[in-house]
Specification:
The chain has about 850 residues and is of the alpha+beta class. The chain has three domains: about 300 residues, Glycoside hydrolase 38, N terminal domain (7-stranded beta/alpha barrel); about 240 residues, Beta-galactosidase, Chain A, domain 5; about 80 residues, Sandwich (Immunoglobulin-like). About 20% of the residues lie in helices and about 30% in strands. The protein has 16 helices and 45 strands. A ten-stranded antiparallel sheet has the order 19-27-28-29-30-39-36-35-32-33, with helices on one face. Strands 20, 21, 22, 23, 26, 31, 34, 37 and 38 form a nine-stranded antiparallel sheet that branches. Strands 1, 2, 3, 10 and 11 form a five-stranded parallel sheet that branches. Strand 24 and strand 25 form a beta hairpin. The radius of gyration is 29 Å and the shape is globular. The N and C termini lie far apart (about 90 Å).
Length: about 850
């Protein structure tokens, strides 16, 4: 039987679609492809094919090979997608900087505007901004050019605020390779605030050029001699070790690339692979023979987006959720420390800025920049297990934060000689009341060790009035120390409030009895908040009054089975959940209010949970998990909510309603070796710190360290621990106990939508206490506000500008119009609005209100 050329194309298209179960997506066909813009790259994975320093050695060879090819082939174009890796290359090969100057200036080598390929959906907005800002500074300072695009090859998802972030950073285009819309190869993406960015979604991924034979031969491109790629040592449980070129280049282009303009952008890249010399030669050979029908054009992505972008492309909206499981895989052993570091860096910048303005203390710009640099590497899509840069970054941030808070606290006026000042810092732009706990060493007179007067204490506020407090524990070694618990009330926005412990004739510390073990149901209350323990199901019911929506908190182990199909996501839920068996549940009370504490065990893992009520309008849940039982465990925290509601969750600088995904985006129904199935993709989401259930005029917000979870119609499931029972590295920064880990969450019941993201920021930025004693005359007041209370906005950053000539303040409106919070009003003046890379934006009107989800950055200078 003879088959026409059109018929052969149809058969080939069908074959490609059969291969597309997760690897080669078939897009809706539009206009035939006539122009293909081609560039080369190496997809740089810092750990996938070996961790540093081995991966760095491979990167050195890749950059050397690219430098050689741009010198030999005028049609060769190469993109560097990891600026951290290139910086490491130049630090170890400083002579190469001069050699790269010419190819960078003439556009044959292009730098993507990113330190690393940061995981977009689990990151915070400030992580994404710094990823562009620091890369831009590096590229400009070293080569005198500015980046034009981001190329997030292999990033498993995209956040809907990317259009605004890139548009406000001077980047004109974005390349993505996973989960993009099947009906559009080139499109304009509209963000939450209406900003737009040009996007090329590569349906064949960053290896598309390889799969079409571009790196092999003209015969491979024509389909007369298809090539095979061998991945020699990859585990067959993960992926087949041999990949075959599916078809000739032309039918693959016409089938996979849905383009209204007849243009396509193709990357020729592979994981940590040396760029191939054959690409430029094969382009010439193809154009000589077939260029009248389909022309290949060497082009950098920046030139493509700037000079060859079609006049008309579709407009897309919505989130592209991750097709991996980084955020919801496991909280313990996952990303809890990464984003603790992000927020610690942000607090360090805020207080270091305040300290320099108010006390003259030097802003540690180089330390903070170095910390961000390493932190961004740890957020790379393949770098979760890079312990050294993660710990290094948090250590630098911790030192900078402590120094800044100490600089301020040591200048606060202390009324009496023997007073110990507890300066409580609030880094957010709204006043806050919380129960805080602080460790105090009673040094008293700094030149003596006489601490007996501190055996009896009283506490007063900045107005001199008594403040209730509790001594949680004491210890006497060389001097006396104690853990003190008290309520810090109405701590000013971006400011502090000071409390004073002093010797007293009578000890005024409150005491509380030990908790009482329960044998049945019990309910505790504080104001309108209440928690009921239900022993039959081992759950806790939380509500804010009798007519409030209830949240049911429970824990269970989810059994699994291993699929026989190869891939990264071979574990599948199987069987009924096994609830945690509580061995002990007790009820008690402390200065914060009543609380439950529960101790249980499941699959060899021990769980301790503490549910604390307070009159601050929220419930604090602390969880301690101890591993090492030798059994595989998937420990789930489940929060079940009422019917007839809708889930919303935090994304960088914004909010998304569950289900608001980009139309036609996402994985195939079956998923693939390295992508989850579509049904799981719809219910498994990554989020920025908080989830809210809204219905019937009510809102329940859950803020926690988990960066993702699984949704049903009325429940959120978060994996606390996914473990095979083997010992795990301790979190040395906050809980250095082997095989034991701590986390916490806040559950709030405010009906105001803007309070949901606020609760997420409060979880990561608790009120912090710095202790000081009187040794000099204080120049700062006991209570201070660095900004005015501003509803509906979040002040995400306050830092020294990159050029050191002023300060940068950044805020965004959460879900309604709002005003920008005035910062440092007493000592600084607003110079003007700048974009996210700190360049003056003459088109912006300073002082205008913020639209919902709008990000605004302001440059301030100190008054002279």
């Amino acid at each position: 039987m003879r088959v026409s050329r059109k018929g052969r194309m149809t058969l080939i298209s069908a074959a490609i679609c059969l291969l597309a179960t997760g690897f080669l997506p078939c897009q809706t066909r539009r206009a035939p492809i006539r122009e293909v813009y081609v560039f080369s790259a190496s997809h740089l994975d810092p750990t996938f094919t070996g961790p540093p320093p081995f991966s760095y050695g491979r990167f050195h060879r890749i950059f050397d090979a690219a430098l050689k090819l741009v010198g030999e082939q005028p049609d060769f174009r190469f993109v560097v997608e990891n600026i951290f890796a290139f910086d490491q290359y130049l630090r170890t090969h400083p002579d190469r900087q001069a050699a790269f100057q010419a190819p960078v200036k003439n556009g044959h080598v292009e730098f993507a505007g990113q330190v690393s390929i940061v995981l977009q959906n689990v990151a915070t907005g400030e992580d994404l901004v710094r990823n562009v800002l620091l890369a831009r500074e590096f590229i400009r300072d070293r080569f005198g050019v500015l980046p034009k695009v981001q190329t997030l090859s292999d990033a498993p998802g995209q956040t809907p605020q990317v259009p605004q972030i890139l548009a406000r950073s001077g980047l004109g285009g974005l390349i993505i390779t996973r989960a993009g819309p099947r009906d559009a190869h080139l499109f304009d993406w509209e963000g939450l605030d209406g900003s737009r960015v040009r996007v090329a979604s590569l349906p064949l991924g960053y290896a598309g050029g390889y799969l079409m034979g571009m790196a092999a031969s003209l015969e491979a491109m024509e389909g007369t001699r298809l090539v095979e790629f061998e991945l020699s040592d990859i585990s067959p449980e993960i992926f087949t070790n041999k990949l075959k070129q599916p078809a000739a280049m032309e039918p693959m282009l016409q089938t996979a690339y849905a383009s209204e303009s007849g243009r396509a952008l193709v990357e020729v890249g592979w994981d940590n692979a040396i760029p191939q010399a054959e690409v430029a030669k094969n382009i010439v050979a193809w154009n000589t023979k077939h260029g009248n029908r389909l022309r290949l054009i060497p082009s950098s992505p920046g030139d493509f987006f700037e000079k060859h972008w079609p006049e008309k492309v579709p407009v897309k909206k919505g989130e592209i959720s991750s097709v991996w499981g980084n955020g919801w895989w496991s909280l313990i052993g996952g990303y809890a420390q990464h984003f603790r570091t992000t927020h610690k860096l942000l607090r360090a910048e805020k207080w270091a800025s305040m300290a320099e303005v108010l006390t003259g203390s030097r802003y540690p710009g180089e330390d903070l920049r170095r910390s961000w640099w390493d932190h961004l590497l740890s957020l790379d899509h393949e770098s979760a297990e890079l312990t050294q840069p993660r710990v290094f970054s948090e250590s630098l941030a911790s030192r900078a934060l402590q120094d800044a808070q100490q600089a301020i606290a040591s200048h606060v006026a202390i009324p009496q000689k023997m007073d110990v000042a507890l300066v409580v810092f609030n880094p957010m732009n709204w006043s806050r009341s919380e129960i805080v706990t602080a460790q105090v060493y009673f040094v008293g007179d700094p030149f003596a060790f006489f601490t007996r007067p501190f055996h009896k204490l009283k506490m007063v506020g900045p107005d001199g009035k008594p403040v209730p407090f509790e001594v949680v524990s004491t210890q006497s070694t060389i001097v006396r120390s104690a853990w003190i618990r008290f309520r810090a009330d109405s701590v000013p926005p971006l400011g502090w409030k000071t409390y004073f412990l002093r010797p007293a004739e009578k000890n005024e510390a409150r005491t509380f009895p030990k908790p009482t073990d329960l044998t049945g149901e019990s309910t505790i209350r504080s104001g309108s908040l209440e928690i009921a323990y239900r022993p039959d199901g081992g759950s806790f019911i939380l509500r804010n009054g009798p007519d409030s929506a209830a949240a049911e908190l429970s824990y269970h182990h989810q059994p699994e089975e291993t699929s026989s199909q190869p891939g990264f996501f071979r574990q599948k839920d199987k069987g009924d959940p096994v609830r945690v068996s509580w061995k002990r549940v007790a009820v008690g009370e402390n200065l914060g209010g009543p609380y439950f504490e529960a101790e249980g065990e499941i699959q060899g893992a021990e769980l301790r949970a503490n549910l604390q009520l307070a009159d601050t309008g929220q419930v604090t849940v602390s969880e301690t998990v101890r591993t090492g039982g030798g059994k595989q465990v998937k420990l789930i925290r489940q929060v079940e909510l009422p019917e007839k509601g809708q889930f919303y969750y935090g994304v960088p600088f914004g909010t998304v309603r569950l289900g608001d995904s980009m139309e036609s985006a996402g994985p195939s129904e079956q998923g693939g070796g390295d992508e989850i199935p579509r049904a799981m993709w719809i219910t498994a989401k990554e989020f920025d710190g908080w989830v809210a259930w809204r219905g019937n005029g009510q809102q329940v917000t859950i803020a926690g360290e988990a960066r993702g979870g699984r949704f049903t119609d009325r429940s959120l499931k978060v994996t606390l621990l996914y473990s095979d029972g083997k010992p795990m590295l301790a979190d040395t920064m906050i809980h250095p106990v082997p095989n034991e880990f701590v986390t916490r969450l806040l559950i709030g019941f405010s009906p105001r939508p803007e309070d949901a993201p606020r609760l997420g920021w409060e979880l990561y930025n608790p009120l912090e206490t710095m202790v000081s004693v009187r040794y000099q005359k204080g120049s700062l007041p006991a209570e201070y506000a660095g900004t005015e209370e501003s509803a509906g906005t979040v002040l995400s950053a306050l830092k020294k500008s990159e050029d050191g000539k002023g300060w940068i303040a950044r805020a965004y409106a959460s879900e309604s119009e709002a005003s920008f919070p005035p910062v440092l009003a007493a000592r600084a003046r607003v110079v003007g609005e700048v974009d996210l890379v700190e360049q003056i934006d003459p088109g912006r009107v300073a002082g205008a209100g913020l639209k919902p989800f709008e990000i605004r950055t302001v440059l301030l200078e100190e008054k002279r």
